[in-house]
Amino acid sequence: MAGNPYEAVFNQLLDAISTTLSTTLTPLSGASSDSSSGSPSGSPSDAYAFTAFLAGENSQFTRFNSAKVRQSGQVRDGQLTLTLMSPERSTTASVPFIGHFETDWPLTQHALAQLHADLPHLPVDPYVVLPVAAESNASADNPTQYPAPASSREVRCGKILSAESVAQTIIGPVATLNFSGLYAGGLCYRAYGDSAGNRHWFETPSFTLDYSLFGDRPDQAVKGTLAGNHWNLDEYQKGIAAACEPLKLLAKPVKAVVKGAYRTYLAPAAVGDLMDTIVWGGGLGEAALRQGNSAFDKLARGEVALSNKFSLSEDFERVSVPRFNRNGAVAPQRLPIIQNGQWVNALVNDRSAKEYGTASNAANDEEAMRAPVVAPGNLKSDEILEQLGTGLYISNLHYLNWSDLTAGRITGMTRYACFWVEAGKIIAPIENLRFDDSLYRFLGEGLMDLTENLTFLPAVDTYERRSLGGMWMPGMLIDQFRYTL
Predict the structure, then answer these.
(1) Residue 294: how many CB atoms within 10 A of its CB?
(2) 299 touches 306 (CB < 8 A)
(3) Which pLDDT tens digit goes with each residue over 160-195?
(4) For 349-404, how does the pLDDT look when each residue is reduced to its tens digit (9 = 90+)?
(5) Is 100 exposed, middle or buried (CB count within 10 Å of its CB: 0-12, 13-18, 19+)?
(6) Does the global pTM surpass 0.70?
(7) Of the N and C termini of the chain, which has fewer Cβ atoms inside 10 Å?
């Protein structure tokens, strides 16, 4: 049963699209093509398939600088992406989604008519994957290795700040601090439906607070995040108090560290910065591996191994994002990618499964991770500095990129709250350093240990819309991490 007007309107649109395709538009099939004319021909009953993906939010955005509100407003936004297919062709259009059928249907109907007009003129695509009923999703054209439901509905509950209380609640504990940040909170929803009758709905109230505390020097700061479905003032106050401790250390004279290789502790946020690059651009997908665009080719081939301390998995039980993707495929709850340093699974979407003749595990279009979790180790939080001894304590990284993708080399810069440590004691903040190292080394022989506790790092992107989810990361102790500048 639909729980809010958006869900009800989305279901109405799906019904209207199905009715229009079956009764109104001129039948067209892409099942085969006349070789002389290139025009499609075939059985009208197989003429069309469609998919519809919805992403939307009702959100409050409040930006802070110097512990004052600088910008505040509410956004209600939605986008419906409609794909029309024949067995050998597909085309896509997006329209705004308002949440009122009388407004949304004319926009959708116009887009559908345009897609119908365009479809016969497009080139043949041999890897189009048509939606099928869930019970038959293991067909030859759409192999899969897991059972997937025809429909799902996940509605999460929560209690977040009201729009009226955001400013006062957040500024209160930081009124005397140089605090800058962005609060984004409200209802987010994702949905999918298709011509085969599959329907999925996901909604959650959620918030993220991405902030920095600055000391006397504007180039030194401590970064923090807070996120969830329930606002917890005590947790927020504890986070601010914890951030104030390294802020005091940043007042010390800065130490210039010469380039070289140093034992390094990467805090969970810094590990998250590294994993951002690895899991979304490193080529963990089947297509990247087959096309030679992966940092993990040697690992996947079994030519090398990482440290047996390192394991990476996709875990939807721990990260609050929908398991269904934009094509309606539903991923398993948990999928190991790397286990104890050994390659286990590539991410495979339905299109790659058809192209390369392998089983799909419902990866997204990019075959990138959506719910990454790195397994913990044995390093206790109160032993980090002792085990580090002399070296670098890195809280955050930025400007990361691949210096040599196929060799697994990543480069980037140190950022906030990074320190030189001697004999297990923090001595001084450091000037910014550039690192350049291979994941085969720092996740291989160089990986000494990982912390026994994981930290949730929320996705805070708001470029097109608020991102969902995040990642669970440990801290990492790495021997001889390489700094080049």
Answers:
(1) 22
(2) yes
(3) 999 999 999 999 999 999 999 999 999 999 999 999
(4) 999 999 999 999 999 999 999 999 999 999 999 999 999 999 999 999 999 999 99
(5) exposed
(6) yes
(7) N
Q: Please state whether beta strands 199-214 and 221-228 pair in parallel, antiparallel, or not at all (unpaired).
A: antiparallel
**Is residue 112 within 8 Å of 77, Cβ to Cβ?**
no
The two three-digit tokens of residue 225, written as one number: 């995040």
User: Which residue, 261, 278, 247, is CA-closest to 397?
Assistant: 278
| CA–CA gap between residue 337 and residue 343 (Å, rounded) | 6
Q: What is the CA radius of gyration of the chain?
A: 25
* Cα distances (Å, whole numbers) of residue 147 to 155, 331, 361, 369, 370: 21, 9, 10, 20, 19
pLDDT one-digit tens code per residue, 45-54: 357 899 999 9
Q: Which two tokens stand for residue 194?
A: 């298709």
Contacts of 134 (CB under 8 A, 6+ apart): 147, 148, 149, 150, 198
Q: Of 460, 407, 485, give the one whose Cα is nearest residue 272.
A: 460
φ and ψ at 232, to 5 degrees? -125, 105
Output the CA–CA distances (angstroms, integers) from residue 137 to 50, 134, 200, 437, in the order listed.
16, 5, 16, 42
Amino acid at residue number 54:
L
Residues in the chain: 485
CA distance 251 to 152: 53
Q: CA distances (Å), 340 to each of 89, 282, 387, 443, in order?
A: 42, 19, 22, 11
Asked if residues 204 and 188 have their Cβ atoms less than 8 Å apart, the reply is yes
Q: What is the pLDDT of residues 33-66, one digit of tens each?
A: 443 333 334 333 357 899 999 999 999 999 999 9
The secondary structure of the chain, three-state, reads CCCCHHHHHHHHHHHHHHHHHHHCCCCCCCCEECCCCCCEECCHHHCCEEEEEEEEEEEEEEEEECCEEEEEEEEEEEEEEEEEEECCEEEEEEEECCCCHHHHHHHHHHHHHHHHHHHHHCCCCCCCCCCCCHHHCCCCCCCECCCCCCEEEEECCCECCCCCCHHHHHHHHHCCCEEEEEEEEEEEEEEEEECCCCEEEEEEEEEEEEEEEECCCCCCEEEEEEEECECCHHHHHHHHHHHHHHHHHCCCCCECCCCEEEEEEECHHHHHHHHHHHHHHCCCEHHHHHHCCCCCHHHHCCCCCCCCCCCEEEECCCCCCCCECCCCCECCCEEEEEECCEECCCECCHHHHHHHCCCECCCCCCCCCCCEEECCCCECHHHHHHHHCCEEEECCEEEEEEEECCCCEEEEEECCCCEEEECCEEEEEECCCEEEEEHHHHHHHCEEEEECCCEEEECCCCCCCCCCCEEEECCEEEEEEEECC
